[in-house]
Amino acid sequence: MAKIPPGVGPRFPQVVVLFGATGDLARRKLLPGLFHLASAGFIPGCRIVGVSLDDLDLDGFRASARKALDEFSARKVSDADWATFAACLDYVPLAAGAPALKAAVDRAEQSLMQSFGGECRRLHYLSVPPSAALPAVRLLHEAGVVERSRIVMEKPFGTDKASSVSLNAKLHEVFAEEQIFRIDHFLGKEPAQNILAFRFANGLFEPIWNRNFIDHVQIDVPETLGLGKRSAFYEQTGAYRDMVVTHLFQILAFMAMEPPTALEPAPISEEKNKVFRSMLPVQPGDVVRGQYTGYRDEDGVDPESETETFIALKCFIDNWRWAGVPFFLRTGKRLAEGQRIISIAFREPPKSMFPAGSGVGAQGPDHLTFDLADASKMSLSFYGKRPGPGMRLDKLSLQFAMHDTGLIGDVLEAYERLILDAMRGDRTLFTTAEGIERLWEVSTHLLEAPPPVRLYPPGSWGPKSIHQLIAPHAWRLPFERAWRGPNPHGS
Ligand code: BG6
To answer: CA-CA distance, 371 to 369, in Å (whole number)?
Structure first.
Protein backbone atom coordinates (compact mmCIF):
# COMPACT_ATOMS: atom_id res chain seq x y z
CA MET A 1 0.00 0.00 0.00
CA ALA A 2 1.23 3.51 -0.83
CA LYS A 3 2.68 5.51 2.07
CA ILE A 4 0.28 8.22 3.22
CA PRO A 5 1.89 11.64 2.89
CA PRO A 6 1.72 13.84 6.00
CA GLY A 7 -1.10 16.36 6.13
CA VAL A 8 -3.68 14.44 4.09
CA GLY A 9 -5.59 13.22 7.14
CA PRO A 10 -7.57 15.26 9.69
CA ARG A 11 -5.63 16.90 12.54
CA PHE A 12 -7.97 15.59 15.21
CA PRO A 13 -9.44 12.18 16.03
CA GLN A 14 -13.00 11.87 14.77
CA VAL A 15 -16.29 10.61 16.15
CA VAL A 16 -18.52 9.78 13.20
CA VAL A 17 -22.25 9.67 13.90
CA LEU A 18 -23.67 7.78 10.95
CA PHE A 19 -27.43 8.14 10.51
CA GLY A 20 -28.85 5.47 8.20
CA ALA A 21 -26.04 3.12 9.25
CA THR A 22 -27.81 -0.01 8.00
CA GLY A 23 -29.12 1.59 4.79
CA ASP A 24 -28.08 1.04 1.21
CA LEU A 25 -25.54 3.86 0.87
CA ALA A 26 -23.92 3.08 4.23
CA ARG A 27 -23.55 -0.56 3.28
CA ARG A 28 -22.29 0.01 -0.24
CA LYS A 29 -20.05 3.02 0.21
CA LEU A 30 -19.81 4.62 3.65
CA LEU A 31 -18.86 1.69 5.88
CA PRO A 32 -16.44 0.23 3.30
CA GLY A 33 -15.04 3.74 2.79
CA LEU A 34 -14.59 4.40 6.52
CA PHE A 35 -13.02 0.96 6.88
CA HIS A 36 -10.50 1.77 4.17
CA LEU A 37 -9.70 5.22 5.54
CA ALA A 38 -9.21 3.82 9.06
CA SER A 39 -7.25 0.70 8.15
CA ALA A 40 -5.01 2.50 5.63
CA GLY A 41 -4.08 5.02 8.34
CA PHE A 42 -5.72 8.14 6.86
CA ILE A 43 -7.60 8.91 10.09
CA PRO A 44 -5.53 9.12 13.26
CA GLY A 45 -8.32 7.90 15.49
CA CYS A 46 -11.92 7.19 14.71
CA ARG A 47 -15.05 5.94 16.44
CA ILE A 48 -18.26 5.32 14.53
CA VAL A 49 -21.65 5.55 16.18
CA GLY A 50 -24.23 3.94 13.89
CA VAL A 51 -27.79 5.23 14.18
CA SER A 52 -30.81 3.78 12.39
CA LEU A 53 -34.42 2.75 12.78
CA ASP A 54 -33.37 -0.91 13.17
CA ASP A 55 -33.68 -2.31 16.65
CA LEU A 56 -30.17 -3.80 16.85
CA ASP A 57 -27.65 -4.24 19.65
CA LEU A 58 -23.96 -3.58 19.11
CA ASP A 59 -23.25 -7.17 18.04
CA GLY A 60 -26.09 -6.97 15.54
CA PHE A 61 -24.67 -3.77 14.08
CA ARG A 62 -21.19 -5.25 13.91
CA ALA A 63 -22.56 -8.26 12.05
CA SER A 64 -24.40 -5.99 9.61
CA ALA A 65 -21.25 -3.90 9.04
CA ARG A 66 -19.11 -7.00 8.51
CA LYS A 67 -21.61 -8.29 5.94
CA ALA A 68 -21.51 -4.94 4.14
CA LEU A 69 -17.70 -5.04 3.97
CA ASP A 70 -17.68 -8.61 2.71
CA GLU A 71 -20.15 -7.68 0.02
CA PHE A 72 -18.94 -4.24 -1.03
CA SER A 73 -15.38 -3.52 0.08
CA ALA A 74 -13.15 -3.24 -2.97
CA ARG A 75 -10.21 -4.24 -0.77
CA LYS A 76 -9.65 -7.46 1.08
CA VAL A 77 -10.76 -7.35 4.73
CA SER A 78 -8.11 -9.03 6.90
CA ASP A 79 -9.11 -10.46 10.28
CA ALA A 80 -6.75 -8.10 12.08
CA ASP A 81 -8.08 -4.98 10.29
CA TRP A 82 -11.64 -6.08 10.90
CA ALA A 83 -11.01 -6.64 14.63
CA THR A 84 -9.57 -3.10 14.93
CA PHE A 85 -12.47 -1.60 12.96
CA ALA A 86 -15.14 -3.59 14.85
CA ALA A 87 -13.75 -2.24 18.12
CA CYS A 88 -14.40 1.31 16.83
CA LEU A 89 -18.10 0.71 16.23
CA ASP A 90 -21.00 1.57 18.49
CA TYR A 91 -24.73 1.63 17.81
CA VAL A 92 -27.77 3.61 18.96
CA PRO A 93 -31.26 2.69 17.71
CA LEU A 94 -33.16 5.83 16.81
CA ALA A 95 -35.90 4.93 19.30
CA ALA A 96 -33.40 5.28 22.17
CA GLY A 97 -33.43 9.04 21.56
CA ALA A 98 -31.14 11.96 22.39
CA PRO A 99 -29.82 10.82 25.82
CA ALA A 100 -28.57 7.51 24.37
CA LEU A 101 -26.95 9.30 21.44
CA LYS A 102 -25.26 11.78 23.75
CA ALA A 103 -23.98 8.92 25.95
CA ALA A 104 -22.56 7.07 22.92
CA VAL A 105 -20.77 10.19 21.62
CA ASP A 106 -19.36 10.85 25.11
CA ARG A 107 -18.11 7.27 25.38
CA ALA A 108 -16.48 7.50 21.97
CA GLU A 109 -14.78 10.78 22.82
CA GLN A 110 -13.50 9.52 26.14
CA SER A 111 -11.97 6.48 24.54
CA LEU A 112 -10.33 8.61 21.82
CA MET A 113 -8.97 11.02 24.41
CA GLN A 114 -7.51 8.15 26.41
CA SER A 115 -5.70 6.88 23.33
CA PHE A 116 -4.77 10.15 21.64
CA GLY A 117 -5.15 12.91 24.22
CA GLY A 118 -6.16 16.43 23.17
CA GLU A 119 -9.34 17.29 21.32
CA CYS A 120 -11.75 15.36 19.10
CA ARG A 121 -14.04 16.47 16.31
CA ARG A 122 -17.48 15.13 15.39
CA LEU A 123 -18.67 14.30 11.92
CA HIS A 124 -22.41 13.72 11.60
CA TYR A 125 -23.25 11.94 8.36
CA LEU A 126 -26.92 12.03 7.37
CA SER A 127 -27.40 9.10 5.01
CA VAL A 128 -31.18 9.30 5.29
CA PRO A 129 -34.13 10.13 3.02
CA PRO A 130 -34.99 13.85 2.79
CA SER A 131 -37.97 13.51 5.14
CA ALA A 132 -35.68 12.17 7.90
CA ALA A 133 -32.96 14.82 7.56
CA LEU A 134 -34.44 17.61 9.69
CA PRO A 135 -35.59 15.22 12.46
CA ALA A 136 -31.99 13.95 12.60
CA VAL A 137 -30.72 17.54 12.82
CA ARG A 138 -33.12 18.19 15.71
CA LEU A 139 -31.96 15.02 17.47
CA LEU A 140 -28.33 16.15 17.20
CA HIS A 141 -29.34 19.51 18.66
CA GLU A 142 -31.27 17.87 21.51
CA ALA A 143 -28.35 15.56 22.25
CA GLY A 144 -26.07 18.60 22.50
CA VAL A 145 -23.50 17.26 20.03
CA VAL A 146 -23.48 20.14 17.54
CA GLU A 147 -20.46 21.84 19.01
CA ARG A 148 -17.07 20.92 17.42
CA SER A 149 -18.94 19.15 14.66
CA ARG A 150 -19.47 19.13 10.94
CA ILE A 151 -22.48 17.70 9.21
CA VAL A 152 -22.52 15.93 5.86
CA MET A 153 -25.87 16.19 4.10
CA GLU A 154 -26.90 13.86 1.29
CA LYS A 155 -28.93 15.08 -1.67
CA PRO A 156 -31.56 15.95 -2.69
CA PHE A 157 -31.28 19.38 -1.06
CA GLY A 158 -34.92 20.22 -1.50
CA THR A 159 -37.12 19.56 -4.49
CA ASP A 160 -37.48 23.11 -5.81
CA LYS A 161 -36.40 26.66 -5.00
CA ALA A 162 -38.84 27.22 -2.11
CA SER A 163 -38.10 23.90 -0.39
CA SER A 164 -34.33 24.33 -0.72
CA VAL A 165 -34.50 27.84 0.78
CA SER A 166 -36.62 26.55 3.64
CA LEU A 167 -34.36 23.51 4.21
CA ASN A 168 -31.28 25.73 4.34
CA ALA A 169 -33.01 28.15 6.74
CA LYS A 170 -33.97 25.31 9.10
CA LEU A 171 -30.48 23.82 8.93
CA HIS A 172 -28.98 27.20 9.75
CA GLU A 173 -31.03 27.33 12.96
CA VAL A 174 -28.79 24.54 14.26
CA PHE A 175 -25.62 24.48 12.16
CA ALA A 176 -23.58 27.39 10.81
CA GLU A 177 -23.00 27.29 7.05
CA GLU A 178 -19.27 26.55 7.66
CA GLN A 179 -20.29 23.35 9.46
CA ILE A 180 -22.48 22.08 6.61
CA PHE A 181 -21.00 19.85 3.93
CA ARG A 182 -23.51 19.14 1.15
CA ILE A 183 -22.09 16.13 -0.57
CA ASP A 184 -22.19 15.50 -4.30
CA HIS A 185 -20.18 12.36 -4.82
CA PHE A 186 -19.52 13.09 -8.50
CA LEU A 187 -17.17 15.86 -7.39
CA GLY A 188 -15.24 13.34 -5.30
CA LYS A 189 -14.49 11.23 -8.35
CA GLU A 190 -10.81 11.43 -9.20
CA PRO A 191 -11.46 12.30 -12.88
CA ALA A 192 -13.76 15.18 -11.91
CA GLN A 193 -10.89 16.77 -10.02
CA ASN A 194 -8.64 15.97 -12.91
CA ILE A 195 -10.74 18.35 -15.02
CA LEU A 196 -9.36 21.17 -12.85
CA ALA A 197 -5.80 19.87 -13.18
CA PHE A 198 -6.16 19.42 -16.92
CA ARG A 199 -7.62 22.87 -17.48
CA PHE A 200 -5.52 24.96 -15.14
CA ALA A 201 -2.15 23.18 -15.03
CA ASN A 202 -1.61 23.23 -18.79
CA GLY A 203 -1.10 26.02 -21.28
CA LEU A 204 -2.34 23.96 -24.19
CA PHE A 205 -6.11 23.80 -23.79
CA GLU A 206 -7.23 26.78 -21.70
CA PRO A 207 -6.71 29.28 -24.57
CA ILE A 208 -9.18 27.32 -26.73
CA TRP A 209 -11.63 26.60 -23.91
CA ASN A 210 -14.34 28.93 -25.12
CA ARG A 211 -17.05 29.69 -27.67
CA ASN A 212 -14.54 30.56 -30.41
CA PHE A 213 -13.21 27.01 -30.56
CA ILE A 214 -15.78 24.80 -28.87
CA ASP A 215 -18.93 23.93 -30.78
CA HIS A 216 -20.87 22.12 -28.09
CA VAL A 217 -20.43 20.00 -24.97
CA GLN A 218 -22.06 16.76 -23.91
CA ILE A 219 -22.27 15.42 -20.38
CA ASP A 220 -23.65 11.93 -20.78
CA VAL A 221 -24.27 9.53 -17.91
CA PRO A 222 -26.37 6.58 -19.10
CA GLU A 223 -26.84 3.78 -16.57
CA THR A 224 -27.80 0.16 -17.20
CA LEU A 225 -29.16 -0.38 -13.71
CA GLY A 226 -32.85 -0.18 -12.87
CA LEU A 227 -34.28 0.94 -9.57
CA GLY A 228 -34.29 -2.20 -7.50
CA LYS A 229 -35.50 -1.34 -4.00
CA ARG A 230 -35.25 2.40 -4.59
CA SER A 231 -38.46 2.84 -6.56
CA ALA A 232 -40.39 4.45 -3.69
CA PHE A 233 -37.68 7.12 -3.32
CA TYR A 234 -37.30 7.47 -7.06
CA GLU A 235 -41.03 7.91 -7.70
CA GLN A 236 -40.84 11.18 -5.76
CA THR A 237 -37.55 12.22 -7.30
CA GLY A 238 -37.08 11.27 -10.95
CA ALA A 239 -33.97 11.54 -13.07
CA TYR A 240 -33.83 15.35 -13.16
CA ARG A 241 -33.76 15.82 -9.39
CA ASP A 242 -31.74 12.66 -8.74
CA MET A 243 -28.95 13.24 -11.23
CA VAL A 244 -29.09 16.56 -13.08
CA VAL A 245 -29.57 19.20 -10.38
CA THR A 246 -26.93 17.48 -8.31
CA HIS A 247 -24.31 15.59 -10.26
CA LEU A 248 -24.49 16.73 -13.87
CA PHE A 249 -24.76 20.47 -13.19
CA GLN A 250 -21.88 20.22 -10.72
CA ILE A 251 -19.66 18.58 -13.32
CA LEU A 252 -20.77 21.21 -15.80
CA ALA A 253 -19.57 23.91 -13.41
CA PHE A 254 -16.07 22.38 -13.20
CA MET A 255 -15.97 22.14 -16.96
CA ALA A 256 -17.20 25.71 -17.55
CA MET A 257 -15.93 27.85 -14.67
CA GLU A 258 -13.38 30.63 -14.97
CA PRO A 259 -9.94 30.06 -13.48
CA PRO A 260 -10.31 30.61 -9.72
CA THR A 261 -8.01 33.15 -8.06
CA ALA A 262 -6.62 30.29 -5.92
CA LEU A 263 -7.15 26.57 -5.70
CA GLU A 264 -9.03 27.01 -2.47
CA PRO A 265 -12.59 26.39 -1.36
CA ALA A 266 -13.96 29.95 -1.41
CA PRO A 267 -12.54 30.99 -4.81
CA ILE A 268 -13.60 27.69 -6.40
CA SER A 269 -17.14 27.90 -4.97
CA GLU A 270 -17.36 31.48 -6.15
CA GLU A 271 -16.45 30.54 -9.72
CA LYS A 272 -18.88 27.62 -9.72
CA ASN A 273 -21.64 29.87 -8.42
CA LYS A 274 -20.89 32.39 -11.16
CA VAL A 275 -21.50 29.64 -13.73
CA PHE A 276 -24.84 28.86 -12.09
CA ARG A 277 -25.74 32.56 -12.01
CA SER A 278 -25.02 32.79 -15.74
CA MET A 279 -27.10 29.76 -16.63
CA LEU A 280 -30.22 30.53 -18.60
CA PRO A 281 -33.41 28.98 -17.20
CA VAL A 282 -33.92 25.45 -18.54
CA GLN A 283 -36.74 25.59 -21.09
CA PRO A 284 -39.26 22.72 -21.16
CA GLY A 285 -39.01 22.73 -24.98
CA ASP A 286 -35.30 21.86 -24.66
CA VAL A 287 -35.99 18.79 -22.55
CA VAL A 288 -36.84 15.16 -23.38
CA ARG A 289 -38.28 13.20 -20.46
CA GLY A 290 -38.47 9.44 -20.80
CA GLN A 291 -39.66 6.45 -18.85
CA TYR A 292 -38.64 2.86 -19.55
CA THR A 293 -41.37 0.46 -20.45
CA GLY A 294 -42.23 -1.66 -17.45
CA TYR A 295 -41.38 0.99 -14.85
CA ARG A 296 -45.05 1.44 -13.96
CA ASP A 297 -45.36 -2.27 -13.10
CA GLU A 298 -42.60 -2.15 -10.51
CA ASP A 299 -43.30 -2.39 -6.78
CA GLY A 300 -43.88 0.98 -5.18
CA VAL A 301 -44.56 2.71 -8.52
CA ASP A 302 -47.86 4.37 -9.38
CA PRO A 303 -49.39 2.49 -12.38
CA GLU A 304 -49.96 5.91 -13.97
CA SER A 305 -46.63 7.36 -12.91
CA GLU A 306 -45.32 10.35 -14.85
CA THR A 307 -41.92 10.18 -13.13
CA GLU A 308 -39.06 10.30 -15.60
CA THR A 309 -36.41 7.59 -15.50
CA PHE A 310 -34.57 9.37 -18.31
CA ILE A 311 -33.80 12.95 -19.13
CA ALA A 312 -31.94 14.71 -21.87
CA LEU A 313 -31.72 18.48 -22.14
CA LYS A 314 -30.01 21.42 -23.74
CA CYS A 315 -28.89 24.35 -21.60
CA PHE A 316 -26.83 27.50 -22.01
CA ILE A 317 -24.38 29.50 -19.95
CA ASP A 318 -24.88 33.08 -20.98
CA ASN A 319 -21.48 34.61 -20.30
CA TRP A 320 -18.58 35.83 -22.43
CA ARG A 321 -16.89 32.44 -22.52
CA TRP A 322 -19.89 30.31 -23.41
CA ALA A 323 -22.65 32.43 -24.98
CA GLY A 324 -24.36 30.40 -27.71
CA VAL A 325 -22.58 27.10 -26.95
CA PRO A 326 -25.14 24.39 -26.21
CA PHE A 327 -24.49 21.99 -23.34
CA PHE A 328 -26.32 18.69 -23.85
CA LEU A 329 -26.94 16.61 -20.74
CA ARG A 330 -28.35 13.10 -20.68
CA THR A 331 -28.87 10.45 -18.03
CA GLY A 332 -31.28 7.62 -17.38
CA LYS A 333 -31.87 4.17 -16.01
CA ARG A 334 -31.96 0.85 -17.89
CA LEU A 335 -30.15 2.27 -20.89
CA ALA A 336 -27.93 0.42 -23.32
CA GLU A 337 -24.61 1.05 -21.56
CA GLY A 338 -23.25 2.39 -18.31
CA GLN A 339 -20.93 5.32 -19.09
CA ARG A 340 -20.00 8.67 -17.57
CA ILE A 341 -18.44 10.96 -20.10
CA ILE A 342 -17.88 14.61 -20.84
CA SER A 343 -17.29 15.15 -24.51
CA ILE A 344 -16.20 18.46 -25.97
CA ALA A 345 -16.73 18.92 -29.69
CA PHE A 346 -14.44 21.45 -31.37
CA ARG A 347 -15.43 23.59 -34.30
CA GLU A 348 -14.65 22.23 -37.73
CA PRO A 349 -12.14 23.94 -40.04
CA PRO A 350 -13.70 26.82 -42.00
CA LYS A 351 -12.93 25.23 -45.39
CA SER A 352 -11.95 21.76 -46.49
CA MET A 353 -9.42 21.29 -49.30
CA PHE A 354 -9.77 17.51 -49.17
CA PRO A 355 -11.48 15.80 -52.10
CA ALA A 356 -15.03 14.52 -51.73
CA GLY A 357 -15.03 11.01 -50.26
CA SER A 358 -11.70 11.51 -48.46
CA GLY A 359 -13.39 10.92 -45.12
CA VAL A 360 -12.75 14.30 -43.52
CA GLY A 361 -15.57 15.21 -41.18
CA ALA A 362 -17.26 11.85 -41.81
CA GLN A 363 -16.88 10.83 -38.16
CA GLY A 364 -17.87 14.10 -36.55
CA PRO A 365 -15.66 16.91 -35.29
CA ASP A 366 -12.51 16.61 -33.19
CA HIS A 367 -13.40 15.67 -29.66
CA LEU A 368 -11.84 15.85 -26.26
CA THR A 369 -13.45 13.23 -24.05
CA PHE A 370 -13.18 12.59 -20.33
CA ASP A 371 -14.34 9.28 -18.91
CA LEU A 372 -15.38 9.86 -15.29
CA ALA A 373 -15.01 6.23 -14.18
CA ASP A 374 -12.64 5.67 -11.24
CA ALA A 375 -10.15 4.17 -13.69
CA SER A 376 -10.41 7.38 -15.66
CA LYS A 377 -9.47 7.91 -19.26
CA MET A 378 -9.12 10.84 -21.61
CA SER A 379 -9.01 10.97 -25.34
CA LEU A 380 -8.37 13.56 -28.00
CA SER A 381 -9.63 12.55 -31.42
CA PHE A 382 -8.59 14.10 -34.71
CA TYR A 383 -8.33 13.28 -38.40
CA GLY A 384 -5.12 11.85 -39.78
CA LYS A 385 -4.01 10.32 -43.03
CA ARG A 386 -4.55 6.65 -43.67
CA PRO A 387 -1.20 5.13 -44.78
CA GLY A 388 -0.78 4.38 -48.46
CA PRO A 389 -1.51 6.13 -51.73
CA GLY A 390 -3.87 9.08 -52.18
CA MET A 391 -5.40 11.10 -49.33
CA ARG A 392 -7.87 9.13 -47.26
CA LEU A 393 -8.54 10.32 -43.74
CA ASP A 394 -9.40 8.35 -40.62
CA LYS A 395 -10.41 9.46 -37.14
CA LEU A 396 -7.47 8.78 -34.81
CA SER A 397 -7.04 9.43 -31.12
CA LEU A 398 -4.52 10.12 -28.41
CA GLN A 399 -5.57 8.40 -25.24
CA PHE A 400 -4.56 8.48 -21.62
CA ALA A 401 -5.69 5.75 -19.21
CA MET A 402 -5.14 5.94 -15.46
CA HIS A 403 -4.31 2.22 -15.59
CA ASP A 404 -1.11 2.99 -17.44
CA THR A 405 0.26 5.13 -14.62
CA GLY A 406 0.49 2.14 -12.27
CA LEU A 407 -1.12 4.35 -9.61
CA ILE A 408 -4.68 3.12 -9.89
CA GLY A 409 -4.44 1.55 -6.41
CA ASP A 410 -3.98 5.04 -4.92
CA VAL A 411 -7.35 6.29 -6.18
CA LEU A 412 -9.69 7.04 -3.31
CA GLU A 413 -13.29 6.10 -3.97
CA ALA A 414 -15.40 9.28 -4.26
CA TYR A 415 -17.05 8.95 -0.82
CA GLU A 416 -13.70 8.17 0.83
CA ARG A 417 -12.18 11.29 -0.60
CA LEU A 418 -15.13 13.44 0.45
CA ILE A 419 -15.42 12.00 3.97
CA LEU A 420 -11.73 12.71 4.46
CA ASP A 421 -12.16 16.26 3.15
CA ALA A 422 -15.12 16.87 5.46
CA MET A 423 -13.08 15.63 8.43
CA ARG A 424 -10.33 18.06 7.45
CA GLY A 425 -12.83 20.87 7.01
CA ASP A 426 -11.97 21.27 3.32
CA ARG A 427 -15.07 22.44 1.46
CA THR A 428 -13.54 22.63 -2.02
CA LEU A 429 -15.54 19.68 -3.39
CA PHE A 430 -18.82 20.44 -1.63
CA THR A 431 -21.75 22.47 -2.84
CA THR A 432 -23.01 25.69 -1.30
CA ALA A 433 -26.50 26.82 -0.27
CA GLU A 434 -26.32 29.64 -2.82
CA GLY A 435 -25.33 27.31 -5.66
CA ILE A 436 -28.08 24.81 -4.94
CA GLU A 437 -30.77 27.46 -4.59
CA ARG A 438 -29.76 28.99 -7.92
CA LEU A 439 -29.91 25.58 -9.64
CA TRP A 440 -33.46 25.11 -8.42
CA GLU A 441 -34.25 28.59 -9.66
CA VAL A 442 -33.07 27.84 -13.22
CA SER A 443 -35.14 24.64 -13.05
CA THR A 444 -38.42 26.38 -12.18
CA HIS A 445 -39.97 26.51 -15.69
CA LEU A 446 -39.21 22.86 -16.24
CA LEU A 447 -40.55 21.75 -12.86
CA GLU A 448 -43.72 23.78 -13.33
CA ALA A 449 -44.44 22.65 -16.89
CA PRO A 450 -42.58 19.40 -17.56
CA PRO A 451 -43.00 17.93 -21.05
CA PRO A 452 -44.84 14.57 -21.07
CA VAL A 453 -42.78 11.43 -20.47
CA ARG A 454 -42.12 9.31 -23.55
CA LEU A 455 -41.62 5.59 -23.25
CA TYR A 456 -38.37 3.92 -24.28
CA PRO A 457 -37.46 0.26 -24.38
CA PRO A 458 -35.04 -0.91 -21.67
CA GLY A 459 -31.61 -1.39 -23.19
CA SER A 460 -32.03 1.51 -25.64
CA TRP A 461 -30.51 5.02 -25.56
CA GLY A 462 -33.78 6.72 -24.59
CA PRO A 463 -36.83 8.02 -26.49
CA LYS A 464 -36.38 8.72 -30.21
CA SER A 465 -36.76 12.47 -29.79
CA ILE A 466 -33.25 12.71 -28.27
CA HIS A 467 -31.93 12.93 -31.82
CA GLN A 468 -34.06 15.98 -32.62
CA LEU A 469 -32.89 17.62 -29.42
CA ILE A 470 -29.25 17.47 -30.41
CA ALA A 471 -29.60 17.92 -34.21
CA PRO A 472 -27.65 18.91 -36.28
CA HIS A 473 -25.10 17.34 -33.95
CA ALA A 474 -25.14 13.72 -32.80
CA TRP A 475 -24.79 12.03 -29.44
CA ARG A 476 -21.26 10.86 -28.87
CA LEU A 477 -22.47 7.60 -27.31
CA PRO A 478 -22.44 4.82 -28.28
CA PHE A 479 -18.79 5.27 -29.23
CA GLU A 480 -17.86 4.40 -32.77
CA ARG A 481 -14.48 3.21 -31.57
CA ALA A 482 -13.92 1.53 -28.21
CA TRP A 483 -11.43 2.91 -25.70
CA ARG A 484 -8.08 1.21 -26.03
CA GLY A 485 -7.47 -1.37 -23.28
CA PRO A 486 -4.82 -0.79 -20.60
CA ASN A 487 -1.31 -0.74 -21.97
CA PRO A 488 0.28 -4.06 -20.93
CA HIS A 489 3.68 -2.32 -20.94
CA GLY A 490 2.49 0.60 -18.78
CA SER A 491 4.84 1.46 -15.93
C1 BG6 B 1 -26.70 8.52 -7.13
C2 BG6 B 1 -28.08 8.44 -7.73
O3 BG6 B 1 -26.51 9.76 -6.52
O4 BG6 B 1 -25.73 8.36 -8.16
C5 BG6 B 1 -28.26 7.08 -8.41
O6 BG6 B 1 -29.05 8.58 -6.69
C7 BG6 B 1 -27.15 6.87 -9.41
O8 BG6 B 1 -29.54 7.03 -9.03
C9 BG6 B 1 -25.78 7.09 -8.78
O10 BG6 B 1 -27.25 5.54 -9.89
C11 BG6 B 1 -24.67 7.03 -9.79
O12 BG6 B 1 -23.45 7.13 -9.13
P13 BG6 B 1 -22.15 6.39 -9.65
O14 BG6 B 1 -21.06 6.85 -8.76
O15 BG6 B 1 -22.43 4.92 -9.56
O16 BG6 B 1 -21.98 6.83 -11.06
So the answer is: 7
Beta carbons of 411 and 225 less than 8 angstroms apart: no
**pTM as predicted:** 0.93
> 222 - beta bridge partners?
332
The DSSP output letter for 452 is P
Nearest residue by C-alpha to atom 6 in ligand 1: 242
Ligand 1 mean position, distance from CA 438 (Å): 22
- Residue 443 and residue 142: Cα distance in Å, rounded? 35
Pairing of strands 377-385, 327-332: unpaired
Active site residues: 247
Crossing angle of helices 433-442 and 161-174, rounded to 10°: 170
Q: d(Cα 487, Cα 491) in Å, to the nearest integer? A: 9
CA distances from 30 to 34, 386, 402 (A): 6, 50, 24
Mutate to test the pocket of ligand 1, among 186, 235, 337 (most ligand atoms within 8 A of CB): 186
Q: Which ligand 1 atom lies nearest to the CA of residue 234?
A: 8
pLDDT tens, position by position, 184-209: 999 999 899 899 999 999 999 999 99
In the reported structure, the alpha carbon of residue 254 is separated from the centroid of ligand 1 by a whole-number distance in angstroms of 18
- 404 Ramachandran zone, left/alpha/beta (phi>0; psi -120 to 50): alpha
Contact status, residue 445 vs residue 282, Cβ threshold 8 Å: yes
Tell me the pLDDT band of 410, cut-offs 50, 70 and 90: confident
Q: Over the Cα atoms of the chain, what is R_g?
A: 24
pLDDT in tens, 324-377: 999 999 999 999 999 999 999 999 998 889 988 999 888 899 999 999 988 889
